[in-house]
Amino acid sequence: MKSNTGFIADHVRDIPRSGIRDFFEIVQSMQGVISLGIGEPDFVTPWHIREAAIYALERGKTGYTSNLGLLRLREAIADYVSTDYDLSYDPATEVLVTVGVSEALDLALRAVLNPGDEVLYHEPCYVSYSPSIALAHGRAVAVATHEQDEFKLRPAALRAAITPRSKVLLLNFPTNPTGGIMSAAELEQIAAVCREHNLLVVTDEIYSELSYAEAHTSIASLPGMRERTIFLHGFSKAFAMTGFRIGYACAPAPLVDAMMRIHQYGILCAPVVSQEAALEALRHGRPDMLEMREQYRLRRNFLVHAFRAMGLPCFEPRGAFYLFPSIKSTGKSSHDFALGLLKQQQVAVVPGTAFGPSGEGHVRCCYATGMDQLQTAVDRIAEFVGQK
Description:
The chain starts with 9 loop residues before the first helix and ends with a helix. α6 links the parallel β3 (118-123) and β4. The chain contains 13 helices and twelve strands. The protein is an alpha/beta fold. It has a seven-stranded mixed sheet, sandwiched between helices. A three-stranded antiparallel sheet has the order 9-12-11.
């Protein structure tokens, strides 16, 4: 009998394992490691949000909801994106509650891609983008961004990557892993390219509340873009709700309906307890979010100064909670630097190549961890690079 791997679909067999998860298999086998790796807030979900979930259970809210999600939550989402993003959506037909932004992204891609359609995305990028495109039978086309450009997507680079098969542009600003952002004027240049070439935009704005220097702008709010944009967001990062697995998509009704048809057969609905918690987060969670953001800002400032002081050039992130310092001066590859740092100093960072080939020469450090841990990690990294 042939190996049972022969039963696996070709497009699944060809998908690489996550560079982050593979690296952290090693981390989990070690003791005393300070992890600057996994992109998860170190804050516990605020009590009033957890209490809303508990109260929902106590009231016996344990059943299915509408495929689209609780109408009360969809109404709150519509109000939230109207106030914070200048976007108007009908909660009855243009908002879909999902199991995290990961599901929302999967639904969006599967709803719009035909086999061979190209999806352009900026790189370095979140590790799931290229595999998610492949799983939807699309073709992933990376457009490199560069530290000297503050990891912004440049219109000329985007234009150069467009072909007759290009259908979707996938954006993520603020960006994981670089912390790069795009201003309204810069996004307008990208929007003009999308309108000119009839591209649909899928914009993942999960880190948008964690913008430090200036107000966040969604490309969906720019002229002529709402009708060609699927806006993705969720609660994991800004509200420290990773384990609740709750996100949402907003888009014109035909696009949401197409996504919902996939969602209703694969998932049916997001967990009702998580939806109740999300509703509380939108209604009363802003003070908690702002307090957490301020802590991230202080940690960012500390780490940027520390890396520069030890001779590692470091772009100052404008959003999210990641640092992407250059380690080229050490003469080591990203993988060798990260592995050496882990084995010699018990500090875990992620090789930049986990986020695409253009991440070589960098490592990602997540500063969603306490200042005492960050201080110890910095001391160990400085010793590793020979600056102490």
